[in-house]
Write a structure and sequence with these properties.
Elements: H1 3-16, H2 23-45, H3 51-64, H4 71-85
Helix pairs in contact: 1-2, 2-3, 2-4
Amino acid sequence: MTIQEYEEKLLKLIDDGIDTATDDELFAGGYLRGHISLAAAECESENELQLSVMKEKVEQSIADAKSELSPSDYVLVCQMWQKVSA
């Protein structure tokens, strides 16, 4: 699977849950979409092909943004990441 295919898979998993998502899940999914797309773009610009590197970039991006979120929102975003990346 390529980085682009993996990005599309993750975004589809988020999108597929929109109809039944709670407000918290919608927030976390929307927030996470940006981190996923950013990580995929970074991998592309660096000619990185390893999915594990993309996953690390997403996780680092979320960790770096922790101060932007309330503690409960940070937990929601982390839980959503665990759900779609499993």
